[in-house]
Design a protein that fits this description.
By secondary structure, the chain is mainly beta. It has one domain: Beta Barrel (Lipocalin), CATH 2.40.128.110. Helix content is 15%, strand content 55%. It has an eight-stranded antiparallel beta barrel with strand order 1-4-5-7-8-9-10-11.
Length: 189
């Protein structure tokens, strides 16, 4: 009986210790950029970014787990050319009026030591949700001297086929493949 109680207490303490390792990080919009690249009729590469985004990261380095939740405002697309922005916001592409947000929820983190190497999850675009894996080009955590707390982040990327979400305007002249690059930093809360 005493042995059972001691075992239960040890297990409860271990569970509490494991839970204490998990922390919430808020996406820093001033150090987080979501950009895209798509070739234009095989000649040049069109690039743009989304200026408004928010989200959180649940991160447990010791437990090798976490969850990423990022919401992007579709209407905040910015290529530096206003008429092109308007076309990308239209029904031909992002249909920002009907689908104002793009969302990525990643719940499977892959680690190499304490570094995140990829995040697998679901991308919701134009009302359709499909699996996407973001691969890390670099990842690091550091003690931010200005915020006086830990900040983690890195550069992540993937290539999607836009037609899978129903974005078919201009095919095949404007290729189906779009490279997404997400530079993210998030501060521990």
């Amino acid at each position: 009986m005493i042995r059972s109680c001691l075992l239960a207490t040890a297990l409860a303490a271990a569970a509490l210790g494991a839970q204490a390792q998990s922390a919430t990080y808020a996406i820093d919009p001033t150090h987080t950029f979501v950009t895209f690249e798509a070739t234009h009729f095989g000649t040049s590469t069109n690039r743009g970014r989304f200026d408004k985004k928010e989200g959180t990261v649940q991160f447990d380095r010791a437990g090798k787990s976490g969850k990423v939740d990022i919401t992007i405002e579709a209407g905040s697309i910015n290529t530096g050319v206003e008429p092109f922005n308007k076309h990308l916001q239209s029904k031909d592409f992002f249909n920002a009026t009907e689908f104002p947000t793009i969302k990525f929820v990643g719940d499977k983190l892959t680690f190499d030591g304490d570094k995140v190497t990829e995040v697998a999850g679901q991308l919701t675009l134009l009302g359709k949700t499909l699996p996407v894996t973001l691969k890390s080009k670099q990842f690091n955590c550091y003690q931010n001297p200005m915020l006086k707390r830990e900040v983690c982040g890195g550069d992540f990327e993937t290539t999607i086929q836009r037609s899978q979400w129903g974005m078919t305007y201009g095919l095949p002249g404007i290729p189906d493949n779009v490279r997404l690059v997400i530079q993210v930093e998030a501060a521990k809360q």
